[in-house]
Amino acid sequence: MGQYTLVQGRPVPDYPQLPPQALRGRVRRITEVGEEVLHRPCRDVTEAEFGTPELAALIDDLFATQAAAEGAGLAANQIGVDLRLFVWDCTDEDGVRHVGHLANPVLDELPADRRRLAEAGEGCLSVPGPYRDLARPDRAVVHGRDQHGRPLVIEGTGYFARCLQHETEHLLGRLYLERLSARARRSALREMARRRADVLARRAALAAALAGE
């Protein structure tokens, strides 16, 4: 791991292993492929919702749920909330840890000379178990707002770029499975059926540990 963490895109030294939000939040059930909330576009966070205790609590719950599921990112509709909001906590190939949240994200369309396709294994907390190779641009720039409504631009390369793209697509009602061939998608769903119980049991144990039970 690198010597610093980028929190909301800014370097922070000595960041704790567990984000403070995860300690405040409660672990919620993660929705799974096939549930309606995952397959339709989410609504924007409104001006009236920015800066509210309810939005802050939702971010805390997303971090707690993500930590218990050992995820790199989590979108609001993955805990059943129809809102364009996601959080992340992932380490890139250079050992730099990225932590943050973003509301109403919009991915930039990057010119071809500023990106290349990179193929790597990708999974999803709403598809518990399988990973499949998937090509995505190796760079991402996402515009949005923080929980107080302030404009925010987050840039990522490699694995973090993949995370930003994956979570933004969740809020458009899309899962990574839809980018796979029909054969690969069927294979992933069969693997999910085999592994789901074990994955959910591990999440439950981690959630109990997070809650101090």
Q: What does this entry look like structurally?
A:
The protein is of the alpha+beta class. It has helices at 20-24, 53-68, 158-170, 182-210, and strands spanning 4-7, 10-13, 73-75, 85-91, 97-107, 117-124, 127-137, 139-145, 151-157. The strands form two sheets. Strands 1, 2, 3, 4, 5, 8 and 9 form a seven-stranded mixed β-sheet that branches. Helix 2 crosses helix 4 (182-210). The longest helix has 29 residues, at 182-210. The radius of gyration is 16 Å and the shape is globular. The model has no long low-confidence stretch (mean pLDDT 95).
Summarize the structure.
The protein has helices at 20-24, 53-68, 158-170, 182-210, and strands at residues 4-7, 10-13, 73-75, 85-91, 97-107, 117-124, 127-137, 139-145, 151-157. The protein is of the alpha+beta class. 38% of the residues are buried.
* Main sheet characteristics: 7 strands, mixed
Overall geometric form: globular
Percent range for β-strand residues: 25-35%
CATH level-3 fold name: Peptide Deformylase
Radius of gyration: 16 Å
Number of domains: 1
Q: What is the terminal-to-terminal distance?
A: 29 Å
- The chain-level structural class is alpha+beta
Order of helices and strands: EEHHEEEEEEEHH
How many beta-strand runs?
9
**What is the CATH class name?**
Alpha Beta
The percent range for helix content is 25-40%
| Average pLDDT | 95
Q: Which homologous superfamily in CATH is the superfamily?
A: Peptide deformylase
CATH architecture: Alpha-Beta Complex
Low-confidence blocks of residues: none
The count of helical stretches stands at 4
